[in-house]
Design a protein that fits this description.
Layout: E1 4-12, E2 17-24, E3 28-35, H1 36-48, E4 59-66, E5 69-77, E6 80-84, E7 89-94, H2 98-109, H3 115-119
């Protein structure tokens, strides 16, 4: 099995220059230099362009670690929270409302959103119902 990885290193933080190494387990890294403007464009695309699945889906991943070893993960995929710690996904929770999802972000991922951040999803394709009714 092969997998791809990204490794981001700052080559000159004062000038906004970064080195991004992309590779896979068989071939090793291929290095390219990126500048601040490159990251701004990539960030804009992933947060705003309709061709990017991240504009219509909410995805959060927390890797479960023991020391330096990753043994599983918890994933929030839109309204479902799943845990995988042995090769099998187990559904932990289905969030029916934004309030439930905000609580799950806090409880399962340690992410506490401000009221402004909570309201930021309103009107987006990935938003859930705002109340229990």
């Amino acid at each position: 099995m092969s997998f791809c990885f990204w490794d981001l290193r700052s080559t000159s933080p004062a000038h906004g220059s970064f080195e991004l190494a992309m590779g896979n387990q068989r071939a090793g890294p291929a290095e390219m230099e990126f500048f601040q403007r490159d990251f701004e464009v990539m960030s804009f695309f992933t947060s705003c362009h309709s061709d990017c699945f991240l504009t219509s889906h909410l995805l959060v991943v927390k890797y479960l670690r023991e020391g330096d070893e990753v043994y599983g993960k918890i994933v929030l995929d839109d309204d479902k929270i799943k845990k995988n710690d042995g090769g099998k996904n187990v559904l932990l929770q289905t969030c029916m409302t934004e309030r439930a999802r905000v609580e799950a972000l806090k409880d399962q991922f340690g992410i506490e959103l401000t009221e402004e951040e909570q309201n930021g999803i309103q009107g987006r394709m990935s938003a859930l119902a705002t109340s229990d009714s």
